[in-house]
From TrEMBL:
GO-annotated molecular function: calcium ion binding; calcium-dependent phospholipid binding; phosphatidylserine binding
Keyword line: Acetylation, Annexin, Calcium, Calcium/phospholipid-binding, Cytoplasmic vesicle, Membrane, Phosphoprotein, Repeat
One GO cellular component term noted in the UniProt record for this chain: zymogen granule membrane
Keyword Oxidoreductase: no
Top-level division of the source organism's lineage: Eukaryota
Family affiliation: Belongs to the annexin family.
Pfam families xrefs: Annexin
Native source organism of the sequence: Takifugu bimaculatus
Main location: membrane
Official protein name in the record: Annexin
Length: 222
């Protein structure tokens, strides 16, 4: 799993002082109304690691959970964003995946956006937290809420078995592209196993080469 604080573009705040940030957050939540500008200035401009230290300092000094206090003070989309920023990456991802499968319908874009873009270690961490927090495996929920080829792709991604090297096998990329074309567009029916093997197991650089080769074979190149 990536080290805490390495995902995203926020850089460490210079002269970071978690105790001072705790006091500013307390002041922002005092009295009538809430100073959302001050809250944003802190949580949106600290790294994940720094936000975790603020949460720890808040609990140590007040004996209360920062997320709970902010949740009671804020509302709407602003509350959702702030609480999301306070979560560790696998916790946030698990939370979003659960929400995507709540109620009628499924937010398929959310499921694929998360599961197709995370590293193997990140997916394992998401699986572990989801199981612990929701007392049900993520695979079971995904399987029960999706169907067909889409379900098979998601379940395959949840196994966290993607090659994570940077190796691009030019010959294999050409073979993969040819087999995908022949399994799909070139004839009726599809060879789903071939799609799953290529899309869910090959590394990302190799996939880009496969897509280039596929465009040539299918005649969809520029």
């Amino acid at each position: 799993m990536a080290a805490i604080g390495t995902r995203g573009t926020v850089t460490e705040a210079a002269g970071f002082n978690p105790e001072a940030d705790v006091q500013k957050l307390r002041d922002a939540m005092k009295g009538a109304g809430t100073d959302e500008t001050s809250i944003t200035a802190i949580v949106a401009h600290r790294t994940i690691a720094q936000r975790q230290r603020i949460k720890e300092a808040y609990k140590q000094s007040l004996g209360k959970d920062l997320a709970d206090d902010l949740s009671s003070e804020l509302s709407g989309n602003f509350r959702s964003v702030v609480l999301g920023l306070l979560m560790l990456p696998p916790v946030y991802d698990a939370h979003e995946l659960k929400n995507a499968m709540k109620g009628a319908g499924t937010e398929e874009a959310c499921l694929i956006d998360i599961l197709a873009s995370r590293t193997n270690d990140e997916i394992k961490a998401i699986n572990a937290f989801y199981k612990k927090h929701y007392e049900k495996s993520l695979e079971d929920d995904v399987s029960g809420d999706t169907s067909g080829m889409f379900r098979r792709v998601l379940v395959s991604l949840l196994t966290a078995g993607r090659d994570e090297s940077d190796t691009v096998d030019e010959a294999q990329a050409a073979v993969d592209a040819k087999e995908i074309f022949e399994a799909g567009e070139a004839r009726w029916g599809t060879d789903e196993v071939k799609f799953l093997t290529v899309l869910c197991v090959r590394n990302r650089k190799h996939l880009l080469r496969v897509f280039d080769e596929y465009r040539k074979i299918s005649g969809r190149g520029d």
